[in-house]
């Protein structure tokens, strides 16, 4: 009796194991031949990232508002385009949609202090509220002041001390400017164009380069505080080709210099 029970138990267990194996094998074959839509919980297929609500990619047209100093005004470019006109053309081709300059509020000779006073005028904030993309150049006149006070009267060598003293006040104002722009339009993309050293060829020790780099590093940190702000470096564009890309006033870019800046800006948004 015990022997019969043992053999019955062994046979039943073997049958169950066979059925489980067959079922498992069939399920495995089903997964290979007819894979389900369920994703591996650890390794998932890459998902497309939706563009931010304020992204220029989502717009049917892009409206530019530009402000700042003479670089945004295009001083030194005989064609009148400056970096703004050249960038607008490149961006329009790149996005394959209309790009308009809604307002150019640049003032030649403007400093950060002068630009802050512009917020007293309602037209500035109203224009910024309508912008999809805001372009800004400011700070160069604060630090270099067209060469005033930064050349030794006797030797005409570059004297970095005067320029160095102007960095912190300019950065304090830039911080306020960026905060004001963000408050006026937190959804717009803002591109701040960094500084280059216009007197590099007159600065044998390159002391001014360190000053410009200090300013640019701090400006990058300020723009990096806002998700829609972009710092556009320009120092490297002029470092090896200063005389090639500067206008005859030895301060502003010429049309080739503006072309390089516009190329850099378009490349960043590509």
Automatic annotation (TrEMBL):
It comes from the Bacteria. InterPro entries: Ester_Hydrolysis_Enzymes, SGNH_hydro, SGNH_hydro_sf. It holds the Pfam family Lipase_GDSL_2. GO terms for molecular function: phosphatidylcholine lysophospholipase activity. Residues 67-260 form the SGNH hydrolase-type esterase domain. SUPFAM superfamilies: SGNH hydrolase (SSF52266). PANTHER family: SPORE GERMINATION LIPASE LIPC (PTHR30383:SF27), THIOESTERASE 1/PROTEASE 1/LYSOPHOSPHOLIPASE L1 (PTHR30383). This is Lipase. It comes from Paenibacillus lutrae.
């Amino acid at each position: 009796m015990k022997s019969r029970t043992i053999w019955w138990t062994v046979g039943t267990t073997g049958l169950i194991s066979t059925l489980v194996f067959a079922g498992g094998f069939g399920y495995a074959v089903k997964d290979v031949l007819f894979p389900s839509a369920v994703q591996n919980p650890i390794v998932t297929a890459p998902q497309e990232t939706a563009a931010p609500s304020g992204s220029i990619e989502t717009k049917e047209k892009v409206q530019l508002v530009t402000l700042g100093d003479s670089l945004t005004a295009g001083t030194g470019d005989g064609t009148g385009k400056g970096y703004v006109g050249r960038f607008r053309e490149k961006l329009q081709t790149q996005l394959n949609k209309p790009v308009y300059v809604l307002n150019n509020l640049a003032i030649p000779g403007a400093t950060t202090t002068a630009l802050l006073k512009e917020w007293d005028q309602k037209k500035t904030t109203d224009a910024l509220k309508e912008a999809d993309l805001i372009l800004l150049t400011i700070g160069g006149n604060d630090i270099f002041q067209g060469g005033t006070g930064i050349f030794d009267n006797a030797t005409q060598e570059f004297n970095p001390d005067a320029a160095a003293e102007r960095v912190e006040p300019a950065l304090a104002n830039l911080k306020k400017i960026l905060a004001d722009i963000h408050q006026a339009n937190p959804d717009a993309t803002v591109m701040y164009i960094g500084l280059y050293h216009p007197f590099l060829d007159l600065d044998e020790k390159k002391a001014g380069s360190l000053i410009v780099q200090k300013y640019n590093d701090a400006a990058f940190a300020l723009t990096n505080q806002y998700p829609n702000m972009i710092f556009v470096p320009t120092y490297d564009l002029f470092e090896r080709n200063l005389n090639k890309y500067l206008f005859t006033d030895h301060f502003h870019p010429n049309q080739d210099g503006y072309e390089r800046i516009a190329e850099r800006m378009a490349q960043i948004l590509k």
